Amino acid sequence: MSKDIYLTGITTTGTPHIGNYVGAIRPGISASKDLSTQHFYFLADYHSLAKNEDPDKIGQSTLEIAASWLALGLDTEHAYFYRQSDIAEIPELTWVLHGMTAKGLMNRAHSYKASVQSNVESGNNDPDKGITMALYSYPILMAADILMFKSTKVPVGQDQKQHVEMARDIAQRFNHHYGETFVLPEAVIGEDTAVLKGLDGRKMSKSYNNTIPLFAEEKRLRKLIMKIKTNSLEPGEPKDTADSTLFDIYRAFATPQETADIAQRFADGIAWGEMKQLLFEYINEHIKPARDEYDRLIADPAIVEAELRKGATRAREISVPYLTQIRDAIGIRKLG
Ligand code: TRP
Asked: Do domains 5-101+137-195+301-330 and 215-296 have the same CATH topology?
């Protein structure tokens, strides 16, 4: 059996937070240490067009996300680490795939349907109001990302599963029509998708504005942790670890033994203030070496740029010849 190829994209909106770290960055970096598989991690900057982000914010987010992965030790000699927009073959393939994508398939995309739904609910007479083609075709661009590198496994959150299935459908239809060309990908949904809760107890997400940035400087990190919502139990009263954001975050960083010790302290009635201080100290210690490296990279973006360029050069050794083959399959060929 040929080796599995893992590929996943990170949309360049926002600053990486500890939820991203626990849910995607840490497992990604650790998986990429397995030399018997191949790994592609990339910054999906063209995808951010669908969200109409401010141009300066996209650049800043690209830098912050790339610097985070590098600071945390991603091995860019083994893993492919690149920026989507540096691989010109991806948007080109996107168009090729448009020819094999049923419009009806796109009509069924959850994210598109949610936008239509919210128009309808707010009483708009145009259900497509504010919906761009970039939003509508988003799954086709994502299919190109996936198919371009013959990925077999695509680690994503539950919300992206449908997109991976669409990539598979599109690939199948293409293969049926033009002959065996694409590898059919499969979504991998992390079984312990530790979805961290944010400051207010809802899922940590930049759309809720309740995140703790992964590399917030020490003072800010402490301040944010002090803001985490708790219940009103007094010091000395036994506390439940279930449904405690403080406990969940601690557990996401600590060893099983340390976690068990903290569970005992909950039962013994640790004061919330003490638990917050303890959590702050733990995360701060854990993150410090990487944060120093992150700060160095943010101060010198040319290093990050060079890494991404290197990744693009490596990735294009695959995408350039493969796209020629794909074009040949659809009849876009040299004349003699
Ligand atoms: N759409 C994904 C998200 O929002 C990001 C993404 C873009 C992606 N292209 C991809 C994920 C290809 C996996 C594979 O999270």
From this structure: no
User: pLDDT tens digits for 58-89?
Assistant: 999 999 999 999 999 999 999 999 999 999 99
pTM, full prediction? 0.94
**pLDDT (tens digit, 9 = 90+) per residue, 276-312?**
999 999 999 999 999 999 999 999 999 999 999 999 9
Residue extents of the structural domains in the chain: 5-101+137-195+301-330, 215-296
**Topology of the domain covering 215-296:** Tyrosyl-Transfer RNA Synthetase (1.10.240)
Q: Which range among 41-45, 162-166, 202-206, 328-332 shows the weakest confidence by mean pLDDT?
A: 202-206
Find the mean pLDDT for residues 118-132: 94
Residue 1 clears pLDDT 80, i.e. is over it: no
Pocket test for ligand 1, best of 11, 83, 141 (most atoms within 8 A of CB): 11
3-state secondary structure the chain: CCCCEEEEEEECCCCCEHHHHHHHHHHHHHHCCCCCCEEEEEEECHHHHHHCCCHHHHHHHHHHHHHHHHHCCCCCCCCEEEEHHHCCHHHHHHHHHHCCCCHHHHHCCHHHHHHHHHHHHCCCCCCCCCCCHHHHCHHHHHHHHHHHCCCCEEECCHHHHHHHHHHHHHHHHHHHHHCCCCCCCEEECCCCCCCCECCCCCECCHHHCCCCECCCCHHHHHHHHHCCCCCCCCCCCCCCCCCCHHHHHHHHHCCHHHHHHHHHHHHCCCCHHHHHHHHHHHHHHHHHHHHHHHHHHHHCHHHHHHHHHHHHHHHHHHHHHHHHHHHHHHCCCCCC
Ligand 1 mean position to 264 CA, how many Å? 40
Ligand 1 neighbours, Cβ below 6 Å, are 7-9, 11, 44, 47, 142, 145-146, 154, 156, 160
Q: Which atom of ligand 1 is nearest to the CA of 163?
A: 1
Give the fold, CATH level 3, of 5-101+137-195+301-330: Rossmann fold (3.40.50)
